[in-house]
Amino acid sequence: MKRIALAGVLVLWLCGSTVAGEICSVFDAAPDFLDVDCGLTDLFSDATDDWKANVGGALRYRYINERNRLRPPLPAGRSSYDQYRFTPFAELVYRENLQLYVQAIDAQTFDADLPKLAIDENQADLLQFYADLKIAESDNDGTLRLRAGRQLLSYGSQHLISPLGWANTFRNFEGLRLYYSDPDWAIDGFVVQPVDGASGNLFRPTSFDNPDQSRFFSGVYATNKNAPNGTLDLYWLWLKENADNPGLIDGNRHTVGSRYAGKMPIGAEAADSVSLIWDLEGAYQFGREDFGGAVNQRINAGFASATGGIGLDAVPWKPTLTGIFFWGSGDSNPLDGKNTTVSTLFPLGHAYWGQIDNFNGQNLIDYGLHLTVKPVDKVTLLAGTHWFTKAARQDAIYNVAGVPFGGPVGTASRNLGTELDLVATWQIQDNLQLQAGYFWFWYGSAVGNHPVPAVANRGDAEMVYMFLDWTF
What we know:
By secondary structure, the chain is mostly beta strands. The chain has helices at 20-23, 445-448, 453-456; strands at residues 41-42, 51-56, 58-67, 78-86, 89-94, 98-110, 122-137, 143-151, 173-181, 185-194, 215-227, 230-241, 252-265, 274-289, 297-312, 320-328, 338-339, 364-376, 379-389, 415-429, 432-443, 461-471. It has an 18-stranded antiparallel beta barrel. The longest helix is centred in the first third of the chain and has 4 residues, at 20-23.
């Protein structure tokens, strides 16, 4: 490891993936784990304080050294590279009635040995620009707002919708979002189009991004805030692709699902010292698919995710042990006129399917175990392991971008391999974080005996990184 990095947002396990610099405003609070003050400053020094302004940003510089990951190009290879990402923002707010927000991005990758990917670079572009208007208020402290323009989306566990803060660029969309919130419910409805390369649009690292006119993403996401010891999510999502893309699952796909997540103390005398933690989610997908050469296949797919653990806050080092299970359906008979491979849409794969980022949840079964400890107040250590298999051996291996790695071919074995993840995080100050990670992947026979030699001819995968993250 040769360099220290300066970085914007990394999402820790089950923590979300937005930096304070990306979301600080009068309408969005900073995530709890960053503990950043999002207070606005007066724009004018009059007595009414009607107008306020806020400026800030985030800067990340990261070093990565990796080899033999399931990423383009197909032959195994090693690459070491440096990345930086600068995301300044400014907003103007009139009382709680109107917010005007603009955020730029300059993200670049240097000295890469392998080709740059769509998540690696976006130079001198607009990440977000929108107007947010309060439409109505209700007697039960409910507020209805409309946000129009370019924006980030993040919902629930981020299994399906994430701004992808781990990448060097973010995933952004352009369109309309109507959202309501009161003490009991948060309900969002949106109609948007993907914008940058990280969202599946064309990779334009040096040109101004424009929305993908062939794709529409819409849905309704509702959260009951008063479910027993947690929250209950209900959602319907609709992705419609009007132009075939051989690198993406497209067509006309609906996703309906729910999620129940929470935390509760164990035992009457335990108080908050011993806690049970859980996150359960499942979804079903239907519609019509025209992926690749399979025209008008009926979609019948889905996924199930279960995470559960115990936190011991009163024990030295405050250990938390978490078990992980994920099943994402695959297609056991690609020639039967049905597509049973799930699409994870726009996920945060880094937090769920191994941090080396080989997979994205399609045709995947994942058994995992994570242990986190805090030896001192501002230091967190994570050790995790995953065992991966294919849900259907006749289906392809899908990499983190959702692309069939080595083409849409099955394998004689379902065994994808085993991964080890080690991460150390030091929260130096509220807005300054240092993190380092080391990941190792032992490939199984589904990769080692793959019929495409360029996929099979690779040793174990390895990745090491370090970054320093500053928000202001």
